[in-house]
């Protein structure tokens, strides 16, 4: 295992982290000041190719001992409040749920989604405002299933989860909080009253028509997983697919869009 340490500006950090994950990093540590990132890679990665890819940033690299990233991530995972109603807590902890809060157990060792990321928080807050008892919710790109769990706790009568990642399939079935269908293309038209998609901007652009097809009349879609500067291109893709943007919200460098057919 080896690591690359890169210097970056604060406004570049989130995008750089996303690029490091895309290039196969097995773990990323941030400096307290937030202007340095250390990204770890397995030995089969090419340090020269990575150095060339990230040549816009001052960087150094060094050999590292193998690290257990699940253990490291779990050690950093602590209970947190999200939105007005949720309490997110590691599954192995027995912290009492604050009065009036809905408890969701999270596990950083599984699929994406512990609730700590701003885009997940934006989706949770939007679900709080929009989910009504008995409705059908579709979670596109469900990951760990945190948004599916939130929808069920908020009173949704039926929750459908979609994800093509094998780990997400395993997690969704273990949680038993949703009907898992794998791909949004497998969902019947006009099915969901609320659709939530916390995925990449590229995936939102690609799936915009499918999301709109799955929306029931009068339904609403929540899309996040993109940074503020990407909101315009996501909005244009949604409108080109026939959608109408109703609201937009941001938290830190991340945004969410609510739209309808």
List keywords for this structure.
261 residues; alpha/beta; Alpha-Beta Plaits; Rossmann fold; seven-stranded mixed beta sheet; 8 helices
What's the arrangement of secondary structure elements?
Layout: E1 2-7, H1 13-22, E2 27-30, E3 36-41, H2 47-53, E4 59-63, H3 69-76, E5 80-82, E6 86-90, E7 102-106, H4 118-130, E8 136-140, H5 146-153, E9 158-162, H6 166-175, E10 179-182, E11 192-198, H7 201-214, E12 215-227, H8 231-240, E13 244-251, E14 254-260
Describe the protein in words.
The protein is of the alpha/beta class. The protein has two domains: 2-67, 2-Layer Sandwich (Alpha-Beta Plaits); 112-260, Vaccinia Virus protein VP39 (Rossmann fold, 3-Layer(aba) Sandwich), CATH 3.40.50. The chain contains eight helices and 14 strands. It has helices at residues 13-22, 47-53, 69-76, 118-130, 146-153, 166-175, 201-214, 231-240; strands spanning 2-7, 27-30, 36-41, 59-63, 80-82, 86-90, 102-106, 136-140, 158-162, 179-182, 192-198, 215-227, 244-251, 254-260. Strands 10-9-8-11-12-14-13 form a seven-stranded mixed β-sheet, with helices on both faces. Strand 8, helix 5 and strand 9 form a beta-alpha-beta unit. Helix 7 runs parallel beside helix 8. The longest helix has 14 residues, at 201-214. It is globular. The model has no long low-confidence stretch (mean pLDDT 87).
């Amino acid at each position: 295992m080896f690591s690359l340490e890169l210097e970056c500006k604060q406004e570049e950090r989130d995008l750089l982290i996303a690029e490091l994950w895309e290039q196969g990093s097995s773990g990323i540590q941030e400096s307290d000041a937030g202007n340095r990132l250390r990204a770890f890679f397995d030995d089969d990665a090419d340090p020269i190719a990575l150095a060339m890819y990230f040549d816009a940033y001052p960087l150094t690299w060094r050999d590292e001992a193998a690290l257990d990233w699940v253990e490291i991530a779990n050690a950093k995972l602590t209970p947190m409040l999200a939105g007005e109603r949720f309490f997110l807590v590691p599954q192995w902890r027995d912290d009492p749920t604050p009065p009036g809060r809905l408890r969701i157990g999270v596990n950083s060792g599984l699929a994406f989604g512990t609730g700590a990321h701003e885009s997940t928080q934006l989706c949770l807050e939007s679900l709080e405002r929009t989910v009504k008892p008995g409705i059908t919710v579709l979670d596109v790109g469900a990951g760990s299933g945190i948004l599916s769990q939130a929808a069920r706790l908020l009173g949704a009568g039926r929750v459908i989860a979609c994800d093509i990642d094998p780990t997400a399939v395993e997690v969704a079935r273990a949680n038993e909080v949703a009907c898992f269908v794998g791909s949004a293309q497998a969902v019947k038209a006009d099915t969901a009253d609320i659709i939530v998609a916390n995925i990449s901007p590229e995936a939102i652009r690609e799936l915009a028509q499918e999301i709109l097809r799955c929306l029931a009349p009068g339904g609403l879609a929540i899309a996040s997983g993109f940074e503020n500067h990407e909101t315009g291109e996501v909005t244009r893709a949604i409108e080109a697919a026939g959608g109408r943007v109703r609201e937009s919200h941001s938290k830190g460098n991340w945004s969410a869009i609510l739209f309808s057919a």
